[in-house]
Every structure is written in C-alpha cells, then in structure tokens.
DNA sequence: GTTCTAACA
DNA sequence: TGTTAGAA
C-alpha cells in the first residue's frame, strides 16, 4: 500500500510516516516511480510506534525497543527480558523531567505572587503588549 | 489525484 | 510536525 492509505489506516499523517522512515523505524520498499510501498505489518508497527511515542520514548529508544515488542490485542507487551530495564530507565527520565517542570512552576508561582506587592504599583513601567 | 523532496513568516 | 512549492 502507498503512504496515503497507511496514513489513513493508522490515523497519522504522511509527514509523520516519512519521518519514521528517516528515523529508521520503518523500511518501506520503493516502486519504480519512487513511491514508498508499505506492507500489511507496517500498520501494526506504526500503531506501536505511536503508542511508544505517547509513552514519552524518543525515536532512538523506540528503534531499540520496537523489535522486542509483541502486541496482544490492544496492549503492547515486552517480548524480551532486557527490555524492562530500558523501560524503567526511561521512566526515571520522565520522573526527572516532571521534577524540573514542578520546580519551574514554583519559581513562576513566586513571581506571580509578587504581583500583589507595593513594588508592583509602578504602572508606568508597564508596556502594552 | 497522489506522492516526492526540500525548506521555512 | 505543519505546510507549501515545484516536479513527476
């Protein structure tokens, strides 16, 4: 099938599919015309890629993990034992990212709270934006 | 009408 | 990632 059909059947865009190929997540063959030719199993692969992307994994990690994943109906299930460590490591990365964002929010909250102080009365210093 | 590559107010 | 231009 060509890129348009795969995009339709996976709820993605052609742009995304070309990007996945660029990241070596998909290896579609080429027709003499230059058009990409996808196989039936690519439908499932693309769905798995999207699930992993939604889990916050980057394309490099997805490339490593993808071949070790088997789908059980709707669920993606790890098929290799070493996989759990990679996934747990990524979970830590997400936890750190969350901590950083929470710290940023605390700083912003402090600034917002300052809006009520006397120093905030210098309206002449405010630019219309 | 569909896809391709390349590039970015 | 969206979008678009220009070509096949």
UniProtKB/TrEMBL annotation:
Pfam short name (any one): MerR_1
Signal peptide (residue range): none
DNA-binding is among the record's keywords: yes
Keywords recorded for this protein, A-Z: DNA-binding
Cross-referenced InterPro entries: DNA-bd_dom_put_sf, MerR-type_HTH_dom, MerR_fam
Domain of life assignment: Bacteria
Keyword DNA-binding: yes
HTH merR-type domain location: 1-68
Gene Ontology MF: a single term: DNA binding
Stored PANTHER family: MERR FAMILY REGULATORY PROTEIN (PTHR30204:SF97), REDOX-CYCLING DRUG-SENSING TRANSCRIPTIONAL ACTIVATOR SOXR (PTHR30204)
Name under which the protein is recorded: Transcriptional regulator
Organism taxonomic ancestry: Bacteria, Bacillati, Actinomycetota, Actinomycetes, Micromonosporales
């Amino acid at each position: 099938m060509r890129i348009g059909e795969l995009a339709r059947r996976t709820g993605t865009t052609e742009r995304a599919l070309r990007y996945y190929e660029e990241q070596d997540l998909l290896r579609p063959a080429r027709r003499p015309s230059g058009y990409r030719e996808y196989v039936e199993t690519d439908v499932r692969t693309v769905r798995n890629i999207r699930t992993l992307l939604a889990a916050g994994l980057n394309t490099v990690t997805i490339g490593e993990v993808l071949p070790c994943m088997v789908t059980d109906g709707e669920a993606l299930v790890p098929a290799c034992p070493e996989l759990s460590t990679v996934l747990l490591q990524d979970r830590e990365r997400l936890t750190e990212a969350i901590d950083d964002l929470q710290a940023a929010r605390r700083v912003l909250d402090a600034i917002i709270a300052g809006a009520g102080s006397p120093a905030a009365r210098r309206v002449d210093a405010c630019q219309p934006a």
